[in-house]
Structures are given as structure tokens and as C-alpha cells.
Amino acid sequence: MAFNGKIIFIKGKVEAKQKIEQIEHITYYNFMTAQELERAFNESKVILSRSGYTTIMDLAKLEKKAFFIPTPGQYEQEYLAKRLKKLGLVPFATQDEFTLENLEEIVNYKGLQLQQKPIHWKNLFCLFERKGEL
């Protein structure tokens, strides 16, 4: 795959000083501040990340397309990645099997969105209705 767009790669290694390295079209960060990470997420079309619960919820709120690589040995991340793939929302690959070609799968998935169900006020307030005499 000859991907020529901009890529930001965040290693997640918090150190005393932030390090930024540019190699061709990839910018590597050892870590990002919360503000920088928020901006990167907001400006990105696709997010390639681990499949942790908080990350999934953030991406759903932002309604982002994603590709997950679960952290090896993190069974919750592995389960969530498999479940989201089965639901047709987000593809994933194991860390050992991932290649850039896997990213082509993203177009076949819906992406993450918050599922907002309408509130049925009548059903909710029926709890307070008097159902006969006490």
C-alpha cells in the first residue's frame, strides 16, 4: 500500500521531554499532552490505536473511523476488538499480523458512533403512576 497522507504516530512513552521526529510523511511523538492528543483526534480522518475501553468511547463520541491493534495479553482489548469487528464497526489485527494493507479494510466498516436511543417518557414515568390503592 502506498499511503501518502500525513501520519502521526504516538508511542505513548511519557518521558521528561517530548521528542518529535519527522521521517517522510510520518511524525513520531514519544507522547502528546492531553490538548495535543485531543487536537490530533479531532483533525484525523482515521485513528489507528489500541482497543482500550476509554479510547473506544472517545472515538465513538467523535464518530471516527478506526482500526484497532489490541495490546497483546490484554484480554479486554482483544475481546472488544473482536466484538466491534463482528458488529461491522471497526476492523482489527493482532500486533504481529498488522500491515499497512490492513487499513484498506476500514472502508468496509461503519465506524464508531454513539447509539442514542430515544427516551420513552411514558414508560419512564409509569413507575410513578398510582396502580391502585395502597
Mean pLDDT: 86
Q: Give the tally of β-strands.
A: 5
Uncertain residue segments: none
Distance between the amino and carboxyl termini: 72 Å
Describe the protein.
- The protein is built from four helices and five strands, in the order βββαβαβαα.
- The chain is of the alpha/beta class and 134 residues long.
- Strands 1-3-2 form a three-stranded mixed β-sheet, with no helix packed on it.
- The longest helix is centred in the middle third of the chain and has 12 residues, at 75-86.
Question: What brief labels describe this structure?
Answer:
single chain, about 130 residues, alpha/beta, 3-stranded mixed β-sheet, 4 helices, 5 strands
Give a short summary of the structure:
By secondary structure, the chain is of the alpha/beta class. It has helices at residues 34-43, 53-62, 75-86, 121-125, and strands spanning 7-10, 20-23, 26-29, 46-49, 65-68.
